[in-house]
Amino acid sequence: MPDNLPSDFAGFSRLPGHQLLSLSGADAAAFAHAQFSSDVTALPLRHWQWSAWLTAKGRTIAVFQLLRLEEERIVLVLADGDADAIASQLQRFVFRRKVRIELRNDLAVVASFTAPESASGAAIAQLAGENLELDLGSDALPRSLRIGAADAVAAAADSADIALAWRQSDLRYGLPRLDADQREQWTPQQLGLDRLNGYSVKKGCYPGQEIVARTHFLGKAKRALQLLRVVEGTTSGTQVHQNAAAIGTVASVAGDLALAVLPLEIAPEPLSVGGVEAAHLPLLDGLAR
Questions:
Q1: 3-class secondary structure, 212
Q2: Which domain of life is it from (predicted)?
Q3: What range does the domain containing 133 cover?
């Protein structure tokens, strides 16, 4: 560990794929509330929640952490990148609202498989200066996420092993990590975002809200994510077979773990992915916020 690494980030590894967007201005919260799937205006200051941005047809563009830091400042933590493209798309809906959308390259994200020092659940802790700490785990699998100035965390190692382990732990919690080919493919219900409290069926309109609400209230959700142990090298989009018939699709993969969208009710016969038998694994609870 480099000697010049600030104490707030000692023992943490940088997650280079994570990017941040800032929404600021008098209409920031109202704009986020109208665009994203979670109930933003009900979120207390200095708290965060899971949220998603959907197409008009209710398909998921991105899943992210939404941090409500101040009355006029919201930050999105995008684990799967593409923050610049998402900012450009969001800008089209600003119109006359008083909101500024910025890619925050001056901030960086670091992580550790340790319990948070001060943060708990959805409550955000402010460490020294403007550094933030978030609780991204549970007793079963403690995890801490910290956000700070990019130059301050520059000495934190970019570890491919830690990045893979973090992605795998996301999948173990049922948090989908969507590669480009899986965006705009799945509804929030199919991605299991109800397990994370990642969408609201009670708040006002947002893109895709009608589809989400109809699916929820009419009980039409027939598929959801399940965790599988697969062969290394499996890619998202690969079909899941049972008795030689395709019954689902791999939506997210990390090493030998995969989240697949499968029927809620399936026969007990073995599943296979890429011609190799895949084992069912239990999902961890405790990441809902």
A1: helix
A2: Bacteria
A3: 9-172
What end-to-end distance do the CA atoms of the chain give, in Å?
32
Tens-place pLDDT, residues 32-88: 999 999 999 999 999 999 999 999 999 999 999 999 999 999 999 999 989 999 999
Q: Which residue, 42, 50, 55, is CA-closest to 66? A: 50
Whether 11 and 159 have beta carbons less than 8 Å apart is answered as no
Q: Is 203 exposed, middle or buried (0-12, 13-18, 19+ CB in 10 A)?
A: middle
Amino acid of residue 162: I
- Residue 6's Cβ-count burial label (10 Å; 0-12, 13-18, 19+) is middle
Any domain includes 199: no
Please provide the size of the chain in residues: 289
> Both tokens of residue 171?
């999948």
User: How would you classify residue 276: left for phi > 0, otherwise alpha for psi between -120 and 50, otherwise beta?
Assistant: beta
Max Cα–Cα distance, the chain, nearest Å:
58
- From the list 277, 268, 273, 270, the residue with the least C-alpha distance to 251 is 273
Whichever domain contains 73, its CATH number is 3.30.1360.120
Among 236, 240, 284, 285, residue whose Cα is nearest residue 266: 240
Quote the CA–CA distance of 82 and 17 in Å, as a whole number: 9
